[in-house]
Amino acid sequence: MLSAPALLTSLASRTALAAIILSIVLSSIMGALRSKKWKAQGKHVFITGGSQGLGLAVAELLASKGANVTICSRTESKLREAVGKVKAAAKTEDQKVEYVAADVSTFEGAKRAIESCSVVPDTVFCCAGGAKPGFFIEQTESDFEKGMRTDYWTCLATSHAAANAMARNNVTNGKIVLISSTLGLIGLIGYSQYGPMKHAIRGLAESLRSELILYGISVQAYFPGTILSPGLEEENKTKPKITLEIEGEEEGLTPAQCAKGLIKGVEKGHFFITTDFNTELFRTAALGAGPTNRGLLDRVIALIGWIAIPFWRNLIADRAIRKHRQQHKEEVLSARLR
Ligand SMILES: NC(=O)C1=CN([C@@H]2O[C@H](COP(=O)(O)OP(=O)(O)OC[C@H]3O[C@@H](n4cnc5c(N)ncnc54)[C@H](OP(=O)(O)O)[C@@H]3O)[C@@H](O)[C@H]2O)C=CC1
Ligand SMILES: CCCCCCCCCCCCCCCC(=O)[C@@H](N)CO
């Protein structure tokens, strides 16, 4: 006869073992199911935010891999210059490289943009977006509304127009890639106008991943850390010092590095794509019910995060914010009272 504690221990270890075996079996089945790698060659790709930063780097990389590319943003002069760079990167001369000037933060604008592509796109990257960092109590209703439009609504409107076009034109193996951020997985001081919208994009990716199975459209989301882009230079002008301190002034990857990692993840069929280890820790800590990238290994990485994240949050991030209270009081609060 086993004693009660011994019985429990043996039960627990058996359950753990069964979970490990099941996870390995499941992840290899899932891996086999998506073993057909996605290829850029011959695809018709539509990229919002394609005139600069990440969007332009994705356009150049996909063109170099043989895709037809349409870049989209609001400013035509920037698009004209960018389209030249994408053409120069193309693998062959007969690939289509075009641009559409449109504001995709409305359903009307996004629909018009997708409909003015010369061929119905089969692959869409929603890279348009941008932050206006600042302290929560200093930001206005208009700042929050702009965040909703620029970050969430551009993704929503573009994927709505794209899913309609793909489903109704019988596009097979369509793909929609949404761009979130590390801040779609965690919250950070200074980003209340932006982070929640990036969390919403995660929710959109989960909803669409499920529903667009109807049309054979696959949905993926990318969670980049800092990208050394023109947009970053712009946002750093209003970014609180404390935010910059916590995210690390020297941190960041070039748009080309991000594009490379993103396309690698797209090719592998990863649902949530990351290109830096910190975000990988946050991704695995926030896996929820979505598909994992590497089955059991995702759970092992989550274990590292389980230890490392509370350390970072308590001893680095929150501590830096507490230390900033006095300066904040002098710089922001008393200025308001005056
Ligand atoms: N930079 C960073 O540190 C990080 C960025 N990200 C996200 O990655 C994505 C790319 O960022 P980044 O490379 O910095 O981009 P940039 O800010 O450098 O460029 C943004 C692009 O989006 C276009 N755009 C903005 N609003 C609209 C709109 N309403 N309709 C159409 N086009 C629009 C801009 O052109 P135009 O203004 O002419 O329309 C431009 O082409 C964004 O979603 C961003 O939130 C995520 C993590 C970190
Ligand atoms: C154990 C874990 C240690 C982790 C340390 C990581 C600390 C940094 C977290 C914040 C990084 C923000 C990147 C995205 C920024 C962004 O989306 C904007 N720049 C918008 O353009």
TrEMBL record:
Please tell me where this protein is predominantly located. endoplasmic reticulum
Alphabetized Pfam families for the sequence = adh_short
Q: Which reaction does it catalyse?
A: sphinganine + NADP(+) = 3-oxosphinganine + NADPH + H(+)
EC assignment: the record states: 1.1.1.102
Arranged from A to Z, the UniProt key words for this protein are: Endoplasmic reticulum, Lipid metabolism, Membrane, NADP, Oxidoreductase, Sphingolipid metabolism, Transmembrane, Transmembrane helix
The protein's matches in InterPro entries, at most eight in alphabetical order, are given as:
KDSR-like (IPR045022), NAD(P)-bd_dom_sf (IPR036291), SDR_fam (IPR002347)
Q: What does this protein do?
A: Catalyzes the reduction of 3'-oxosphinganine (3-ketodihydrosphingosine/KDS) to sphinganine (dihydrosphingosine/DHS), the second step of de novo sphingolipid biosynthesis.
User: What name does this protein carry?
Assistant: 3-dehydrosphinganine reductase
